[in-house]
Known about the structure:
Layout: H1 2-8, H2 12-47, E1 50-74, E2 77-92, E3 95-102, H3 105-110, H4 124-142, E4 147-152, E5 156-161, H5 168-210
Parallel strand pairs: 3-5
Antiparallel strand pairs: 1-2, 1-4, 2-3, 4-5
Helix pairs in contact: 2-5
Keywords: Glycoprotein, Ion channel, Ion transport, Membrane, Transmembrane, Transmembrane helix, Transport
Subcellular location: Membrane
GO molecular function, one term: calcium-activated potassium channel activity
Amino acid sequence: MARSRALYEYTEAEDKSMRLGFLLIAAGLLSLLGLGCCWLRPALQERGGGGSANCTVLAVRQLGERFACTFSCGAACRGTARYPCLQVLVRTSRSSVPALLHEDERQLRTNPKCSYIPPCARDDQENSENVTYKQKYWKEKVGSQPFTCYFNQHLRPDDVMLKRTHDETVLLHCFLWPLVTFLVGVLIVVLTICAKSLAVRAEAIKKKKHL
Length: 211
């Protein structure tokens, strides 16, 4: 009995392999739970009730109001500048009511009154030039040409997005990599157990031949 128990005891390398496998299994499960609770659930809520539509520009205008942004000029150097508010009003194929266009969900949350937030520069004039360039882009290059936009009737019925922050590819990776980590851990554990079992059987057969 003692000899049989000794045969089934794992070596140091096998023990490390088993620990690695169980660690990967735990990491994969925790990642799935963490991403599901903290990131995936809000992302699906944002996508719920939403869809795509064809948008056409109705008006492009700058408001007199200016908004503050924070710029960085080094490790310990930060400051505040201002930029004008650009609004792009569009008509969607789903509704006749004009909607305000935004870059994405993140920009919408940062400043729901404007359609564009320029990269924050120290000089207010540079920020104004960036907004004016974007205004010309929507007026002259896009004009009346239809383009794809995204909406969410439940969360923001009066706003549409040019692109989604959480698209299908991001959601796929949210599931894929934790699942791969979990499966690799399971594979390591199973292969270690199988290798040990085969080694024990081979040792038993070898002893029978010598008897």
